Amino acid sequence: MAENDSHSEKETGVVLGFLEEAEPWQLHSAQFPSKVGGKPAWLSHVHLPGHPELVCEKCKLPLGFLLQVYAPIVGIERSFHRTLYVFCCRTPACYTRNDNSCFKVFRSQLPRKNDFYAYDPPPDEEPADNGDEQHLLSSGVKLCWLCGCPGQKACSRCHSVTYCSKEHQTIHWKQQHKKECCTEGASSASEVHNPFLFPEWELVTEPEKLPAKNEESHDRLQQVDCASSELEETELESMALHESQDSKVFQKFKTCIATEPEQVLRYCRAGSPIWVSSEHVPSAAEVPKCLCGANRNFEFQIMPQLLNHLKVDRPDASIDWGILAIYTCADSCDQSNKYSPEFIWKQDITEDRAN
Known about the structure:
By secondary structure, this protein is of the alpha+beta class. The chain is built from five helices and twelve strands.
C-alpha cells in the first residue's frame, strides 16, 4: 500500500528480536524472560520434557538449549503465560542440508492463576531470594547441572549433583565436579565456564517498521541490493535476463532485513516467514497437525544472524542454518501443564550462495 508521507513509518505487524546483555536474575523464570543461551528458564515446573524427548534424532546425544520466547496470547486465559522453547544438537556433523532432525520445539502455558507464580506481575528489581532454580525447581524437579534440563541421575559418590544423562555427567565430571565431589559445599559450588551452553543474552523485541521512503532509506536498500555491484554492465544485464526465482526470494530476504540487520528473530503469529531460498519451502501438508488435531500455524523464525553470537564457527563443520521457522498449534491447546511438542522447519541458504 502506498505511503503518502515520505517521512513517516508504518508498522508491518512483525515483531523483531534483538540481543542485549542482562543481569542473571532478569533471566529467571519468575521474570518471564525471552532469552538466548544459558539454561532454560522453565515456565511450568512440572511435566518437563526429559531425556528421551530432548535427544538428537541423529546422534542420540542430549540437545542443548538454544532459546525461548515468551509469547502469551491476549484474551485466552489458558495462555496468559506462554513460552516456546527451542533446543538443538551440539554436534556439528548432525547439521545436514534442510534437515530438521537435530532440533526440537516445546510449548508451555499457564493461566494467570497457577501454582508457580504470583497473580500480579513481578517487580522490576532483583528479589531478595532468587532460590536455586538452576538446579532445583519449586516443584522438586531436579535439573541437570550441565544443561539445566530435568536430571534424575545423581552422582554415585556425593548424591548431591544431578544429571540428565551419562554423557553430561562425564562432561561435568571432567570440567568441574571431579575437584569438588564429596567436598564441603560441593552442592552449592559456583559455576565455572560451561562450554556446553551457548552464550546467554536477553531477547528484547520491538515492532518492525517500514522505512521512510526518502533518499536515505533508498540509498540503504541500494547498498544491499546486489553483492555483484562491481560486475560489468553487460554481465548485469545478462543476470537480470536470467534471474531465477531463487534469486528473487533471496533478494526479498535481504531487502526485508536491510533496515535492521542485527535482528535475530522475527515474530508474527499466523503470519508468514521470509525465506532465504525458493527451495525447500514447506507445503501445508508438510506441517503436521498438533497432537490435539488442530492445524499448526507459523509463529516465529530464527534468523541466521543469531549464529554470529553463538560462538559455533569451526573450520571443519559448524552448527548452521539459513532460517528456522517454528509452527505452533493454532488453538494453543491445553495439555494440562505438559510441555507440548511443536514443529520446526530448517531451510538452508542455496549452496552457491553459501560458498
